[in-house]
Design a protein that fits this description.
This protein is an alpha/beta fold. The protein is 31% helix and 20% strand. The structure holds manganese (II) ion (MN). The site of manganese (II) ion (MN) has 6 residues, from loops.
Length: 394
């Protein structure tokens, strides 16, 4: 029996200022395209069941365009694979914080999708000899946490979860998302045929029979750490998984990326003058295969004194920024200057981002505002301001 495992489409995710010809945020369009391509791939493979392991939407109150996109893709699945159960859980991004917010997931229930968005639900499909325990984000905060155990006579026992597995990030929490649930060894320890995980955006095997499918596009505020992590794990891009049971043989299915996301090799300003650094930057930008046109690009330059940053050719930099969908020219100050403003020594004091996050977490919010998204957007704005300051307003 074959199960398609997808996770974290984050429909409605928006980033950067570029709009398409119809006035829609280009990255939101991209994320919809990525989901459509994943569904195309699933339809071509004709699995016996389909799992979407949380964060279908980026926000609790998705935009109409995100809802429409999701509805169309699930309707397409439903029509083309009428006998395949489709299972969907809510993740931390699409779980309402308050019980008076009606979940949009009812819409998919009415389409014939098996939905778990509040409590854990067990589904049985005797014709497939399959039982599925679907555990949405919110169910992991019940006290006591429900025991996650296989049950029933079915041969294939599958668990769907959305959260952070033990030890996932080690000491580097750059990729950790605020608001996620922590999973314990006990949560994962049942005799499962397969555990379909969502939440972590880089696809990988946690242990035999336990996998993160990963997101379908770069949908976090920090695509660069994600790229680095993919590189470490030998991955090229995003996709979904096909799981063969009972062996739990897992096949990766890549999707064609709707957008190039490129982290260029870091440069070192050394003792260069502004004119020399201009030349070095131009070489790096012109060397990008296929050009920077319409790509999301970062160029880190280390050791750039403020005076040199100010004297750079900002007219040319603005032209590059217009060619790319987004160019992040990350000009970093020399180490000594960084220490002087108190950002160099880890553990010595809070970073400005930590302080701002703490402040935003404690602020009173109007009803219906997603706290974690509010905090994440605040941090993103701060990062943008810091970036602009370093780039001398270019
Ligand atoms: Mn997610």
């Amino acid at each position: 029996m074959r199960i398609a495992h997808l996770a974290d489409p984050h429909l409605g995710f928006r980033q950067y200022a570029r709009l398409n010809a119809r006035g829609h945020n280009q990255r939101e369009v991209d994320v919809g395209t990525a989901f459509g391509r994943a569904i195309d791939g699933v339809l071509a493979e004709r699995p016996d069941a389909v799992i979407v392991a949380g964060d279908l939407f980026h926000a609790v109150r998705p935009t109409n365009s995100a809802i429409l996109q999701a509805f169309r893709e699930f309707a397409r699945l439903r029509a083309a694979l009428p006998d395949a159960p489709i299972l969907l859980i809510a993740g931390n991004h699409d779980t309402p914080r308050s019980s008076d917010t009606v979940s949009i997931f009812g819409l998919f229930h009415d389409l014939g999708v098996h939905v778990a968005h509040q409590g854990a639900r067990r589904f049985s499909f005797p014709e497939l000899d399959l039982a599925v325990l679907a555990v949405p984000h919110q169910a992991l905060f019940e006290q006591p946490r429900p025991a996650l155990e296989p049950a029933g006579p079915e041969q294939h026992q599958v668990l769907i979860l959305h959260g952070e597995t033990p030890g996932l990030f080690g000491h580097d929490r750059a990729l950790a998302e605020p608001g996620g649930a922590f999973l314990s060894e006990a949560d994962l320890g049942g005799a499962w045929s397969y555990v379909a995980l969502g939440h972590y955006h880089v696809q990988h095997e946690v242990r035999p029979r336990v996998w993160y499918a990963g997101a379908l596009d770069y949908v976090s505020p920090d695509p660069w750490s994600e790229l680095r992590e993919e590189h470490t794990r030998g991955l090229h891009g995003k996709g979904w998984l096909m799981v063969d049971l009972p062996e739990a043989r897992v096949t990766r299915h890549a999707i064609e990326a709707p957008r190039r996301v490129l982290d260029l090799r870091p440069l070192d300003a050394g003792e260069l003058s502004a004119a020399e650094l201009d030349r070095l930057l131009a070489e790096a930008i012109e060397a990008v295969p296929g050009g920077i046109e319409d790509a999301v690009v970062r160029q880190v330059v280390r050791g750039v004194p403020r005076a040199v940053a100010r004297e750079l050719d900002h007219t040319t930099i603005r032209q590059w920024k217009a060619r790319a969908l987004h160019l992040h020219l990350d000009l970093r100050r020399p180490e000594r200057a960084a220490r002087e403003v108190g950002m160099g020594a880890p553990g010595e004091r809070q970073t400005l981002a930590d302080t701002v996050a703490g402040f935003l977490r404690g602020r009173a919010l109007p009803g219906g505002v997603d706290r974690e998204q509010f905090v994440a957007e605040g941090i993103a704005v701060l990062a943008e301001v810091e970036r602009d300051a370093l780039e001398g307003g270019g």
